[in-house]
Amino acid sequence: MAPKIAVFASGSGSNFQALHNAIEAQKLNAELVVMVTDKPEAFVVERANKVGVEALAFSPKTYDTKAAYEQAVIAALQQRGVEWIVLAGYMRLVSEVLLQAYPNRIVNIHPSLLPSFPGKDAIGQAIAHGVKVTGVTVHYVDEGMDTGPIIAQRAVNIIEGDVEATEAAIHRVEHELYTEALNQILK
Ligand code: GAR
């Protein structure tokens, strides 16, 4: 049986889309049972609806604590038999509550060669720093910001003077590398 995954996203959802496409094309052995977002207005919700993946939108502000928010998310995941959590542009730190419910079962993708340029706008940070090579990292999640054991990395050259082309190149690599890394660990 294919492992059941939930994809968490807060934005456009191009990585969600790539994972869905890889599963459909039988390049990724997983069942994408639900997309969870903390941003009900995010474009990823439209993408999920379009491809027929259940979208669960939470508004963390409406919970008294982060723990209460994550407990609600965990209940929804457990009801659906989710075994792995795949963060794909989920721009919120995961707390102990979620980490303990899914120990060593939460992974993240980040658009830099970690530990360089963690946090928001990693591509912008790399360009501003003047590095010539950046890349993509897939890693297990711990309580830190884009920390945790590295599963896979791939370098991407910065295209000087062309931010858009650099971003596009990084996203292309993300879409390939996430599938490869997940096939390696989802057993
Ligand atoms: C991706 O580049 C992902 O690596 C990044 O957010 C973007 C989401 O794009 N994640 C982080 O920066 C995590 N710190 P998407 O919504 O199109 O998949």
From TrEMBL:
Its EC number is 2.1.2.2. GO terms for molecular function: phosphoribosylglycinamide formyltransferase activity. Keywords: Purine biosynthesis, Transferase. Catalyzes the transfer of a formyl group from 10-formyltetrahydrofolate to 5-phospho-ribosyl-glycinamide (GAR), producing 5-phospho-ribosyl-N-formylglycinamide (FGAR) and tetrahydrofolate. Residues 4-182 form the Formyl transferase N-terminal domain. It is an enzyme of class 2 (transferase). The record marks 146 as: Raises pKa of active site His. Pathway: Purine metabolism; IMP biosynthesis via de novo pathway; N(2)-formyl-N(1)-(5-phospho-D-ribosyl)glycinamide from N(1)-(5-phospho-D-ribosyl)glycinamide (10-formyl THF route): step 1/1. This is Phosphoribosylglycinamide formyltransferase. It comes from Metalysinibacillus jejuensis. (6R)-10-formyltetrahydrofolate binds at residues 66, 91-94, 108. The gene is purN. Gene3D superfamilies: Formyl transferase, N-terminal domain. The lineage of its organism: Bacteria, Bacillati, Bacillota, Bacilli, Bacillales. Belongs to the GART family. It catalyses: N(1)-(5-phospho-beta-D-ribosyl)glycinamide + (6R)-10-formyltetrahydrofolate = N(2)-formyl-N(1)-(5-phospho-beta-D-ribosyl)glycinamide + (6S)-5,6,7,8-tetrahydrofolate + H(+). Pfam families: Formyl_trans_N (PF00551).
